[in-house]
Amino acid sequence: MIRVVLVDDQAVVRAGFRVLLEEYDDLEVVGEASSGPEAVAVVQRTRPDVVCMDVRMPGGDGLTATRRIVAERDGAATPAVLVVTTFDLDEYVFGALEAGAEGFVLKDCDPADLADAIRRLARGDGMLDQSVTRRVITEFARRRPAPSPGAEADLLTPRETDIVRLLAQGLSNAEIAAALFVEPSTVKSHLGRAMMKLGTRDRLQTVVWAYRTGLATPA
To answer: Where is the HTH luxR-type domain (predicted)?
Structure first.
């Protein structure tokens, strides 16, 4: 069972998401919050797998809350933060990526897409879909360019470089494995070593690194 916390300043939005998510047997809403500070407290109390975080809230923004939630992880990969926003190119989204959010979807997305995004974050895949996340990552990289890949890129093996490039295209571990004719476990192992060398904390940050340094380029 995947445990979810919903964060939005509008009660009707939270209620709607709860109804939608509870249609799925593998998802359980274990808490709600209407502001960033409240979200941090609810997460500390409920220990969810995924936090669906709004970014614009008058009682305390989701960016600060995301930063605190990420900073308080006790060595585990959870909870992952999924930004749920009305705006696909919002400054708050870029801030949330920097703060450690691992993916995001638009509020008007299909319920099945929201559920799938939660599942992907829960299993550590990140939400790197072609329709929204990749476009925002590209814009994020354009606004914050880096001069070159730097010394850390030289530490990557050719296989690790290939995997990071494919990851930046939005492929899952299974899809990367199929493209490279290897096992998904091999992809996971190589990607883990690449992230250690690059100093990136998760898949999304690795993709941002790839676009910022030019290792990956927009299609």
So the answer is: 149-214
pLDDT for the residue 205: 79
Distance CA 104, CA 97 (A): 9
DSSP-derived pairing of the beta strands 2-7 and 50-53: parallel
Quick check: pTM over 0.70?
A: yes
Q: What is the pLDDT of residues 91-102, one digit of tens each?
A: 666 777 778 888
User: For residue 49, how many C-alpha atoms fall within 13 Å in the half-sphere facing its CB?
Assistant: 18
Instruction: Walk me through the domains of the chain, giving residue ranges and CATH numbers.
Output: 2-127 (3.40.50.2300), 146-213 (1.10.10.10)
Tell me how long the chain is.
219
Contact 104, 80 (CB under 8 A): no
* Helix residue ranges, H only, 22-157: 36-46, 62-71, 91-99, 111-122, 133-143, 151-154
